[in-house]
Design goal:
Blueprint (H helix, E strand, L loop, with lengths): L1 E7 L2 E9 L3 E6 L20 E6 L11 H4 L6 H15 L4 E6 L1 H12 L4 E7 L8 H8 L1 H12 L2 H12 L5 H11 L2 H13 L7 H10 L4 E6 L11 H4 L7 E5 L8 H9 L8
Parallel strand pairs: 3-4, 3-5, 5-6, 6-7, 7-8
Antiparallel strand pairs: 1-2, 2-4
Length: 277
C-alpha cells in the first residue's frame, strides 16, 4: 500500500493505492469513513490493476477552504480540474469508478462530468439518487447553514427533537441511531457541516446520466443492503429507469454498512469486479 497527498489550488486529496497496474479502479468512501475501507477489495486485484482510493474532503488530510464553502460551494469545474491534474500525475487516462454512500454521489457526479474517461461504475448504496429536503435546507440555504452552525456548539435542542420523534415512532430507529453516532461530539458535528458545505453542489443529473449511458454504454453495478433505511434499495429505479439497457442490481442481506465479507463474496459470485470473466 502507498499513501500520498495531492494538492491543487485550494484542494488537498489524501489517497491510498494498492497494486501497480494501469487498469485503475478510482474509489470514494462514505461519510465518516476513510479510503482505507477499500483494502477489503484488494484480494480481487489482478496483476494489471490498481486501486486508488481518495479521501472525501473534510476527511483526514483531504481538505477544502470551508470558510469559503459557507458562501460558495466547490464547483464542478474546480473538481474536474483538480481530478484531471491528479489523474495526469498518476498516469491514468481512463478508469473504473467505485463509490459508497456519499462517495457514491461523488462517483455519480464524476461519471456525469467526465463520461469519456469512465470504463465502468460500481455503486454501493450511492447517495444522490434522491434529494433530501433536510440536506437541501441545511446546506443550500443561508438560514439552514446558520441554524446548523449553531447546532455545532449547542446540539441539545436537536437531540431533544430527535428524542421526541423517536418516542412518537416518527423517526426510524436506524436514523435515530445514525443521528447520535454522527453528531454526538463537536468534532463529528463539525465534520458533517464541513462535508455538507463542501459537496453541496454535487448532485447528479440522473436524466443526463441516462443520456450519457446511451452514448457511452458502460457496465454499471448497483449494490444495496436489504435493510438499509438510509439509502433504500428501491431508490435504484430512479437511476436505472433512465437506462435503455439492463443494469445489474444486487441486494445484500445487510443494512447500510456494506464493507464486509458478504459484499466481497457477492462481487466474486456475480463477477462484478472489472476484468472478471
Amino acid at each position: 500500500m502507498k499513501e500520498g497527498i495531492f494538492t491543487y489550488q485550494q484542494l488537498s486529496l489524501y489517497h491510498l493505492e494498492w497494486g501497480t497496474g494501469n487498469d485503475v479502479i478510482l474509489c470514494f468512501h462514505g461519510f465518516g469513513r476513510t479510503s482505507a475501507d477499500f483494502e477489503l477489495f484488494t484480494p480481487l486485484l489482478q496483476t494489471n490493476q490498481r486501486i486508488i482510493a481518495i479521501n472525501l474532503l473534510a476527511h483526514g488530510a483531504s481538505q477544502f477552504d470551508v470558510s469559503r464553502a459557507y458562501i460558495n460551494a466547490l464547483q464542478p469545474k474546480e473538481w474536474l480540474d483538480c481530478l484531471k491534474a491528479f489523474l495526469d500525475e498518476k498516469g491514468v487516462q481512463k478508469f473504473h469508478l467505485m463509490g459508497y454512500s456519499m462517495g457514491g454521489r461523488v462517483a455519480l457526479c464524476t461519471w456525469e462530468w467526465m463520461p469519456e474517461r469512465v470504463k465502468s461504475a460500481i455503486l454501493l448504496a450511492p447517495d444522490g439518487l434522491k434529494k433530501s429536503l433536510l440536506y437541501q435546507f441545511a446546506s443550500g440555504t443561508r438560514i439552514g447553514r446558520a441554524i446548523y452552525r449553531s447546532c455545532i456548539e449547542n446540539p441539545n435542542w436537536l437531540f431533544s427533537i430527535a428524542n421526541q420523534l423517536h418516542r412518537l415512532k416518527i423517526l426510524h430507529p436506524k436514523l435515530f441511531r445514525f443521528l447520535h453516532v454522527h453528531l454526538d461530539t463537536r468534532s463529528k458535528r463539525q465534520q458533517v457541516y464541513d462535508a455538507w458545505l463542501a459537496y453541496r453542489a454535487f448532485f447528479p443529473n440522473l436524466a443526463r446520466l441516462g443520456q450519457i449511458h446511451s452514448i457511452h454504454s458502460i457496465p454499471v453495478f448497483l449494490l444495496f443492503g436489504k435493510n438499509d433505511s438510509i439509502i433504500r434499495p428501491d431508490l435504484a429505479t430512479r437511476l436505472t429507469s433512465r437506462f435503455k439497457t439492463p443494469v445489474k442490481i444486487i441486494i445484500l442481506p445487510s443494512g447500510h454498512r456494506l464493507f464486509h465479507q458478504i459484499t466481497l463474496d457477492a462481487m466474486i459470485d456475480e463477477k462484478i469486479w472489472p476484468g472478471q470473466s
